[in-house]
# Entry
Amino acid sequence: MRNRPEIITMSIDMYISNLSSRKMRNQLKRHFDHKISHVSILDWVRRYTLKVHKFIENQGYNLGSSFYADETMIDCEGRKDRFWCCLDWDTRLITGVHYSLAANPIEAQEFLKKAIAKGKPKYIQTDAGMFYPRAFRKMFYSNKFGGPTVEHRIQNYQTTRIHNYRIETVFMKIKDRVLDFRGLKALWSAPILMNAIVIQHNFVEAHTTINEIPSEKAGVNLGLGENRWLDLIRLSSKYVISQNK
# Structure
């Protein structure tokens, strides 16, 4: 592209971290005398998120036995859409996400498929959402084993007064960033931007409690340098070329 790779990746990193596209545009102008539109910055985020996502979904992950899953409401085009997220507690890796317009057993089942795509745990803990039990039966019940192949643990706040707190800590971080977006503006773009946040969580930032990058804790060591977005994009480009040969 016409812009320096470092300018592009810094813009992506800062946008996902805490700056709006307009503020990032202003920073580039003040500090580097680099003129770029805020729309271009958003285009970079979406373009390279899609490229990196395809690459990282094909890595081999070594995950733990306890997953924590939940869904939260996200502002998009004046609606309250649903963002579903599953976390492996051992590595703090987000194992799978799903974006939907509603919460029901069909969407829950689609979410669970994505949650275990990188590895199947011993159990998945959710809140007491009424759509989960049916989805678990559809996904994990086996006549061969005479029961579920993945245990469904339910944390019912109404009876225990305890939240599904392990996944809630991730949601607080995600929702803070969406608030910085001032809501999501387009349905076609929303899932891509949410995936950008997940890539940042899994591959770019060290988790504060384990002081490790979740993907590396899960055994995916790609030899990324300090500019992790730049290295991810380069590896993703090589992956696309190898797939097309």
Q: What stands out?
A: Residues 66-217 form a domain with the Nucleotidyltransferase; domain 5 fold (CATH 3.30.420.10). The mean pLDDT is 89.
